[in-house]
Amino acid sequence: MDILITGANRGLGLCLAKVGLENGHHIYAGVRSLDEKTTEPLAQLQETYKEKLEIVQLDVTDENSVIAATETIKRKNASLDGIINNAGILNEREKTIEELDLEACKLAFDINTLGPIRVIKHFLPLLEKGNKQSIINVSSEAGSLTNAYAGDYPYGLSKVAVNMLSEKLNVYLREKDIKVLSVHPGWMRTDMGGNKAPLDPMDTATGIFDMVERKKNVNNKYVFVDHHGRSMVI
Ligand code: NDP
């Protein structure tokens, strides 16, 4: 399969690239910046996987960058079988509503919500040419209405919106048999999750690929699931 992953240089995104390559897929690893330090972990993977791994500049806040990334892939006459919208930020963590910086809130929406929209808007034609296609939007239980807590305002709100985006896309794309899921990846040991988190992001990545490869068929009422494909409460 040909799979695009955003934010693929570290954390869950890097683990998704690793699992995808181990499973024999061709990975387009989207990275915000092509600087050497950022791409270093992917360059190391390329030593083993060669042309099965392509690093593509893709800043999800920049529509021109997204369009340029589609052109890069089109030049290779390629199609896509999967898009994993993984890139995300968690900012304004400890802030109360009175303390929120609205520009930081806009940035969270720009990356977490508009990012997947930009990517799907421009990559859908390539995905439509693929096989057994899926779109995975990496969400969070922080975007569940039953899990409201004081704090993480922009993050929680931007992930609720991701869940609605996924439901809407599912309605729009199910007749084309394009599978859409919004996945809570669990609390993982990454820069975002910190080192006290219980989950290894490699395990989450494996669970996500089970769904992408349709080893696990998920047909729940709503598309919000955990990395095992179990229903999450919207
Ligand atoms: P990290 O902070 O470890 O990694 C975030 C990734 O997103 C980096 O590769 C980063 O790139 C990339 N990114 C940020 N902004 C942009 C942008 N504008 N364009 C392209 N890429 C960008 O996060 P995790 O790996 O932990 O999180 C991955 C996903 O999982 C996120 O969507 C997150 O919300 C979700 N999640 C994570 C949880 C956890 O416990 N970790 C829990 C629930 C959900 P760069 O290096 O350039 O900054």
From TrEMBL:
A matching Pfam family: adh_short
Classification via InterPro entries: Fungal_SecMetab_SDRs, NAD(P)-bd_dom_sf, SDR_fam
SUPFAM superfamilies on file: NAD(P)-binding Rossmann-fold domains (SSF51735)
Coiled-coil stretches noted in the UniProt entry, renumbered to this chain: none
Superkingdom of origin organism: Bacteria
Keyword line: NADP, Oxidoreductase
Name of this protein: NAD(P)-dependent dehydrogenase (Short-subunit alcohol dehydrogenase family)
